[in-house]
Amino acid sequence: MYKKKEMNNTPIVGILEWFRPGEYDEVKNAIEDFKKLGISHLRTGISWADWYVEGTQDWYDWLFPELSKHVEILPCFLYTPPSLGEREKTSSPPRELKSYADFIDVMISRYGEYFEWVELWNEPNNKVEYDFTLDYSWTKFSEMIIKAGYWAQQKGKKTLLGGMSPIDPNWLQMMGEQGVLEHIDAVGIHGFPHVFDQQWKGWEINIKAVKNILKNFGMEHKEVWVSEVGFSTWQDDEVKQFEEFKKVMGADTQRIYWYSLKDLDPKKSTVGGFHLDEREYHFGLKKEDGTKKLLYKLLEKHGLKKINSHDYITKTYRLEEKEKYTLITGGAGFIGTNLASRLLKEGKRVMVYDSLFRDGVEQNLKWLKEEYGDNLIIQIADINETRILAEIVKYASEIFHFSSQVAVTTSLTNPLLDYQVNLKGTFELLEAIRKSDHQPPLLFTSTNKVYGNLNDVEMKTNETRYVPADKKIQQNGIDEKRALDFHSPYGCSKGAADQYILDYSRSYGLKTAVFRMSCIYGPHQFGTEDQGWVAHFLISALEDNPVVIYGNGKQVRDILFVEDLVDAFVLAAKNIEDLSGEVFNIGGGPQNTVSLIEILEIIKNKAGKEIDISFEDWRTKRSILLCFQHFKISKGHTSWSPKYSVDEGVQALLQWLCETRNIKLNKTIQPSNKELAL
């Protein structure tokens, strides 16, 4: 049996997760999650009612030994078999009160080697879990628990009284008066602050009240456990879930079980019914599709001991700003961070609005906070939290909308997430702006993928790259008059958002501009194979990881260094009156085109390292080449063009990566001759 040494004065933190008979894969997946989160304790339900269903005993024969290899199990025994109840339902008192103790006896005899504690029922003062209208004086419940507790203790087990929900000292007083507490080693309490417990008084007051009852009976030595606590993110508020977790961690208790690991499957019913209460379905640390929520990511990356160290994660529900600010949604991403840094350096107040969905972006946020202090306003929230959006738009002087799901691959595996972030989130922001009194201007980052796969562009090939056969395209690339042709869910969501924004300018007079961007790279980018490929290649080279090329490596992009992009944003914002309602392709232009194998050669020379390159089949025949016209202000008096060459940009990014990862190259890196916002 798994056993972890308990630390003095530090509550043990476990997870509450319920498994239905036959969910073998769910158990195995949960065990992997427990390892990632450092979780060593599990509270799980063992259904008395299911025990008599064919196949259930085989399930428990597998479940107990499997779980006990990885976590200390707290089994919660509950649910009356309908055939044994006063009424044919699982919440009914059994006709024979001793039968519950008999079941506990069977469980301990058969599986007792796998657990130390037993929990007697679940939420007995919750009518859904125990129908106390069939037991007005609670004498049936008391007798049932007394018999089960006595027998469990006789067989060497410790007993936990099923957690009250809501926490009710009066009910506990009655249990004491009826002799239940004499056979109990710990009392469980459940709390769901600001979800089901809307008049929440706080853990300190609730636990103190329970301890006072125990003291009245001379049982102050008995433990009080928070055997179930959680927060539902049904309104997308993951910061509040994180905050409630931190609060319960400070509770005066020996154990805490957080509910739960994963959101409930929306295809299944809860004990209360099928979607009768939507809050029931969103208590997990992960969404039903496996997407990690904020708290999961913090626990996975930084561990339980550092949960109180993330003071950069702040959220304000009601703002009282006297001075307006520039709002950057997705502001902790790499483009948002570079823009925020530029504006903050110029003395502007900036609000970074970000959900911290993408791995690593919290590092950008911490860096901005350390560099710029109080001029930076941090708002950690989801782009679909409409009330928060409306509140922050009220005080925004201008808005840069970068919040986005950015990977085509993710859009293919999780198109709902892609739609909710890219299209629905953009729509919600547009509505917040439209309904505001001052309607601040909006600049949006769209994508070149709105033009589709460009298969009609005839290409030639040389030794290292593809080249357009058409001289005009060679010199100018694809312009904004090109017909739209959305490919992939990502292309659809970004393209639709792109069109919504332009139409809100036409229909409602909002001041908007859309940038359809090529490949952007630079400092504060955490590149992966699916997104940020220049940084990904560099990181792979620095860490001696292999690089996989899909296709022959001759596909070409015009890449743009992020400082140049920031210049374009600043220029566009200053000239929004002239640019409103327009769309711009923006990239490095013909002089900054580079094929994959060409840039790998550049990286190899700069890093002084050989790169292990392999080639796989084409993922898609799309995008043999993309290069764009330079962004120009159509009616203005100035123009923009990139200042950084590919060579200079790659060197600048390499320098930043080495500095932030404490990597020293054998080959001396020459600093860029351009000043960087590092």
Protein model, in words:
The protein has 20 helices and 23 strands. The protein has 678 residues and is α/β, with parallel strands linked by helices. Helix 9 links the parallel strand 9 (325-329) and strand 10 (350-354). The longest helix is centred in the middle third of the chain and has 21 residues, at 415-435. It starts with 11 loop residues before the first strand and ends in an 18-residue tail after the last helix. The relative contact order is 0.06.
What key attributes describe this structure?
17% strand, alpha/beta, eight-stranded parallel beta barrel, seven-stranded parallel sheet, 678 residues
Rg (C-alpha, Å):
30 Å
Oligomer: single chain
Strand content: 15-25%
The mean pLDDT is 91
Largest sheet strand order: 1-2-3-4-5-6-7-8
Shape summary = elongated
Judged by helices, strands and strand pairing, the structural class is alpha/beta
The low-pLDDT segments are: 669-673
Q: Ends: how far apart?
A: 52 Å
Enumerate how many helices there are, as a single number: 20
Described by strand count, sense and barrel closure, the largest sheet is: 8 strands, parallel, barrel
The total beta strand count reads 23
Helical fraction equals 25-40%
